[in-house]
Design brief:
By secondary structure, this protein is α/β, with parallel strands linked by helices. It has 14 helices and twelve strands. Helix 6 runs parallel beside helix 14.
Length: about 350
């Protein structure tokens, strides 16, 4: 039988009960007083006929679709920022389905996905912030309409409810760790002219610690073009690392803005026979797979993506239910110690 031919009326005829009783049983209505025998009979007939509830009708009636839209820039970025699988699992347990859209940091696609999700009547949207460019006009609209919306990460020029890693704290933790390991001459290696708030905050946090301890610091930068893919980034960082580490006044410890840059530094140090961590300490950020499979496993700062997933779900549901106030929450990241800063040492010589 064609699915669309199966109706509550068809089931009621076969079960010899009213349509309202069938509806109450299949919707698990607590006000339904049908006996257990009738309930079992109705459910069995519905299963035999291949009945599926009309969710479109239900959503129009209840003004709720039990769906949430998730917009992410790309899988790699989101993988280290928020635990998507856990987020979906928690939502499922609370009776929600998840729609996922990828933007590849394309503004037009971001705006198109928001319009698409709204047309599908999703109950709320979780937006993972990628690279910042010009302001997303669709986000401005839904903020003004007080639509249930929350971001993972922050925009620089747009105020939203958000859950974010405390990137400033992460940079500060990186500096503190290197200092406690005995390193004194610090360097940083970041993308040049970055406009991304998370990267900028990592740098600010690291420099804050360096300034507090009155330590030496050298700043090095990588062309933004090199960030096109992981392989290119590691390869180009290795070339830059060779130049940095050949300098007689090279740093004794370097903070890389992400793990892939840290891997490039490890490879260049190994080529120059510089001992890690005895002669050079390296710390990255993100706790990505690259930090684990590096020739020398890399000490890194891990974003608590599972905590962010839980908090994002809790808060988007509160907003849907109208129980939420302003949300501005920073989650402190975690230091993961590995061999690249493994032992305490005092100087390069």
């Amino acid at each position: 039988m064609n699915l669309k031919e199966v109706t509550l009326r068809e089931i009621s005829k076969r079960a010899n009960v009213s349509v309202s009783t069938v509806s109450a049983i299949l919707n698990n209505n607590p006000t339904c007083f049908a006996g257990e025998k009738t309930r079992k009979k109705v459910i069995e007939i519905a299963e035999q006929l291949g009945y599926y509830p009309n969710l479109l009708y239900k959503s129009l009636r209840d003004r709720k679709t039990n769906t949430i839209g998730l917009i992410i820039p790309h899988f790699y970025y989101s993988e280290i920022t928020v635990d998507i699988e856990l987020l979906e699992t928690i939502l499922w347990g609370k009776g929600y389905h998840l729609f996922i859209g990828y933007t590849r940091n394309d503004l037009q696609k971001e705006e198109g996905l928001i319009r698409d999700f709204l047309s599908r009547r999703v109950d709320g949207i979780i937006f993972v912030v990628g690279q910042e460019r010009e302001i997303n006009k669709e986000i401005e609209k839904i903020i003004n309409k007080k639509y249930p919306f929350i971001t993972v990460g922050r925009f620089r020029n747009l105020k939203t409810d958000f859950i974010s890693t405390d990137y400033f704290k992460g940079g500060y933790i990186a500096g503190k760790h290197l200092y406690e390991k005995g390193y004194e001459k610090f360097g940083i290696l970041f993308g040049e002219k970055t406009e991304d708030l998370p990267i900028e905050e990592r740098k600010k946090g690291f420099l804050k610690f360096v300034q507090e301890k009155n330590l030496n610091i050298k700043e090095y930068y990588i062309k933004k073009d090199y960030f096109s893919n992981i392989e290119t980034l590691i390869e180009k960082t290795e070339e830059i690392g060779m130049k940095i580490l050949k300098d007689k006044n090279r740093p004794s410890a370097i903070f890389a803005s992400n793990d892939e840059i840290a891997v490039g530094l490890v490879k260049s140090a190994l080529k120059l026979s510089i001992k890690i961590p005895e002669q050079l300490g390296i710390i990255g950020f993100d706790n990505s797979l690259s930090s684990i499979i590096s020739p020398i496993p890399i000490t890194t700062i891990r974003q608590k993506k599972e905590v962010i997933a839980k908090r994002a779900v809790e808060n988007i549901i509160k907003k849907i239910e109208g129980k939420s106030k302003k949300i501005e929450e920073f989650i402190e990241p975690e230091l993961i110690k590995r061999e690249s800063t493994g032992i305490r040492r005092k100087s390069l010589n």
